[in-house]
Each structure stands twice: as C-alpha cells, then as structure tokens.
Amino acid sequence: MSASSDVGYHAQRHARWHYGEVAFWLIVLACGFAFPTRYLIMTDILRLALFAMSLDLILGYAGIVSLGHAAFFGVGAYAAGLLALHGIVNEPVLALILAGLAAMVLGFATSFLVIRGVDLTRLMVTLGIALLLEALAERFSNITGGTDGLQGIEMQPIFGEIPFDMFGKAGFFYSLAVLFVLFLFARRVVHSPFGLSLRAIKNNPLRAAAIGIPVNRRLIAIYTLAAFYAGIAGALFTQTTAIASLDVFAFERSADLMLVLVIGGTGYLYGGLVGAVVFRMLQELFSTITPQYWQFWIGLVLVVIVLVGRQRLHRWVLYVPNLIIKQVAGRKAVVAVPESDA
C-alpha cells in the first residue's frame, strides 16, 4: 500500500460514524422528552454548543486564536431581530440563513486583517473588531435600540406551522435540528481534503505553503465559514428569546467560549458540544450553591483541568465504571466455565 493510499484509508476510517457518536445524539434527543421543564437551559446549551463549534473550526483546526468571536454572534443576533421586527422576512428558517450570511460577509471582510498576524496580533484584531461593533451598535441606537436593545420582537411560526411557545419546547427542537444539520456539514468539512490541509497549516504553515497548499485562501475560507456558524448561533439566540441587546457583543461572551473549549478540548467537534454542556451545568450548579462566588468555583475547575490534564481526568472518571464492568465480566466468565468431572 502506497503512502497516499494509506493516508486516504486512515482518513476514511476516521471519518466513519461510531456508535458513541450515534449514542451521543440519541441522548441529546432523549433529553428533550425526559426533561420537559428544562427546555430553556437546554436550548441555551445548544446555542452555546453551536457557537463553540464555530470557534473550534478556526482555533482547533486552523490555529486562529480569537477573542472577538462575539462580533459575528452579535451581527447574526441583530440581523435576525431586525428582520423579524420590521417584517422584512417573517419565516424564521429563512431569516436564520440570512442572518448567518450577514455574519459571513463580515467574516470575509475582516479575514484579511486576521490572517496577516500571529497569535497575539490576531487576539488584538479580533477583540478590536468586536469592541468596534459594540460601539457602533450603541452609537446607532435608532436602529439597534441602544442599551435597551430591540423591543417588540415577535417570531412567526417555523415554516408557518410550528409556533414558538413560552415553555421553549419548539425552540429546543428547532435549535437541535439546526445544530445537527450544521454539525453534519462541519464534520464533512473537517474530514475532507480541505480539513486535512487546515491541519497541515496549523502544524506548520511554512511547510504547508512549500508543498503547494494555498495557506491564505484556506484560512480565509474557514474563517468565513466560522463566522457563518457564529451568526447562526446569534440568530438562534434572538429567535428563541425574542431579545437582541448590546450584550451579544460583550467580551464576556467570547471569553466564555474560550472556557468552553478549554473544558471540552479543541480540534474535535464534540469538544465544543461536551464543553458547552459541562460549562452550563457547572454554572447552574455553582450559582445555585453559592450565587456570589460561582465564578470562583468554575475558575478552580479550569485550573484543575489545566494542571491535571483532560485525559487523566477522563481516566479517573471512568475508573469506577470500568472496574465494575471488569468484575461483572469476570463473574460471567467464571460462571461460563464448566466444572470438571473430577
């Protein structure tokens, strides 16, 4: 087997669906039926997971660090809010796509600034873009509503048939469907030759350019795609909450996103999804126990993850279940052995 065919074989094998992935999505779907009183927080987790996945596309696969990813989230949120508020596009799915395209245009326009620098420069540029958009949104308060945000947003039924209810059931399944569709597309992208070239650029951009990979064009493409995903997440936020305020551009939103990926891991699409679940659950738990100091406990968890290591924690968490499984399997093996006639 040649080297190229060997790489292709391993790439195809890695791209196949595994039982754990199917189980993950079935569990997420089952949560919608098992916890009917928790639709709002579960919808929030889905939005955060999509937002985290958008950052993972550029950070985990292309090595582009960003502290201003909330810029695209905010553009998508305001675009969806304005489209609904003024009755320009009444269908939520179509408005969702248009909001994502608006963020995508911004991502393409700013990508030329981002790809020129190194990590520290990119951090400052992306943060500056988010702060600039927040200032512009506050300046043009006649359009954005300023500090009060957009008032009177009323979302039309999805496809004209499924209305958004006050309990959040429609919003949860709507967000889950959007997340799953975009996850499928992102999964296809990262396992394609395009995705492999992104990994090569992340590992060594000079070597990638030497073997003929168009580094800048690849980075612009993935940055634009990530902006589209973040815009969709922002539009979901507006459509499921009927709120769009300056908070969507806040630095804390981008910072939380980095924390999510620290918990879940980068360079693996499920890292953002799992990290979003863990982060929101920890936030909910600690804010219930100690409402004033919940940020301290989340910070402590992050320090432990960094010092101990995610893989080691994973082994520790699974130690007891694996021990039980081994004992049960050992007992079954003993029972299965027939006794001798002697």
What's the short version?
By secondary structure, the chain is mostly helical. It has helices at about 5-15, 20-35, 40-60, 70-85, 90-115, 120-140, 140-145, 170-190, 195-205, 205-210, 215-240, 250-265, 270-290, 295-310, 310-315, 320-335.
Describe this structure in words.
With 342 residues, the chain is mainly alpha-helical. It has one domain: ABC transporter involved in vitamin B12 uptake, BtuC, CATH 1.10.3470. Helices cover 75% and strands 0% of the residues. The protein has 16 helices and no strands. The protein has helices spanning 3-15, 19-34, 39-59, 70-85, 92-114, 119-139, 141-144, 169-190, 193-203, 205-210, 215-241, 251-264, 269-289, 294-308, 310-317, 319-336. The chain starts with a helix and ends in a 6-residue tail after the last helix. Mean pLDDT is 83; it is low at 332-342. Keywords: Cell membrane, Membrane, Transmembrane, Transmembrane helix. It is found in: Cell membrane. It comes from Bradyrhizobium diazoefficiens (strain JCM 10833 / BCRC 13528 / IAM 13628 / NBRC 14792 / USDA 110). The chain crosses the membrane at residues 22-41, 48-73, 93-115, 172-190, 220-246, 258-281, 293-309. GO terms for molecular function: branched-chain amino acid transmembrane transporter activity.
